[in-house]
Amino acid sequence: MRDVCGSSSKHRARAEQWGGSMMDAAYPIDFIGLGTMGQAMALALVKAGTRLLVWKCSSQNEKVCAASGSITTPRFALLAVCLFAIFSCTSEEGLMDSSKVNQFATRYTAAWCSQHAASVASFFAEQGSLKINDGTPAIGRDAITSSAQGFMTAFPDLVVKMDRLAVIGTKTEYHWTLTGTNTGPGGTGKFVRISGFEEWRLGPDGLIADSIGHFDAADYQRQLNADGRSQ
Would the CA dihedral through 15, 17, 22, 25 be positive or negative? Predict the structure, then answer.
């Protein structure tokens, strides 16, 4: 198992826990399976003086291994090592993706605080969509810019704070808290603090393909028309 996830020594060491003493420095090359091509390659290496460690897939391999002087492992060891390699690669990739999404969300939050609506739209794909509660989706960056501008105009001191991220299947939930004073044109002058979240579907380009936003619209309206200011 070489070059699995770019770190053969780490995975080889862990595999020893499953395969036991068969993982030996005397066998510098590992083979998983000896099919038609694998047998020819393995025998050519043996003829060149290289000893092999073969993770067998069938009992037919025993004859080849006996003739070549190499050794095989039990099937359970093959399964354990393969599963470990897949799990390790997936886990490391998942951690990396999680870090990237967190950085993406941090920059997205800063864009909402920038009073520059086009910056918010730049986090969406060219034909991405933003839907808020039961409203009509804003599709495309121009429409998303207009939607974001509506909030920025209504709340000149708008601040958005990222509360947390939650990855659920293929979706990412971006939870936020918005604060601001409604002093824009026609505003009530009231301070608002409202929390909600967006459900993101990220595209292959790493941008938001679509976002569905949720917040308590009734509480939002209550705060806009409330007497006094509470923070």
Answer: positive
**pLDDT, position 201:** 96
85 or 201, which is more confident: 201
Residue (of 151, 140, 154) closest to 112 by Cα position: 151
User: Model-level pTM?
Assistant: 0.60
pLDDT reading at 219 higher than 90: yes
CATH class in words for 113-224: alpha beta
- 23: buried, middle or exposed (CB in 10 Å: 19+, 13-18, 0-12)? buried
Q: How far is CA 217 from CA 80, 150, 198, 224, in A?
A: 52, 15, 14, 11
pLDDT band for 151, please (50, 70, 90 cuts): very high
pLDDT at 99: 86
Q: Which residues of 169-205 are buried (b: 16+ CB within 10 A; e: fewer)?
A: eeebebbbebbbbbebeeeeebbbebebbbbbebeee
Average pLDDT over residues 76-100: 53
Question: What does the DSSP 8-state code read for residue 22?
Answer: G
Q: Tell me, what DSSP letter sits at residue 136?
A: P
Q: How many residues does the chain have?
A: 231
Name the segment(s) of the chain with CATH classification 3.10.450.50.
113-224
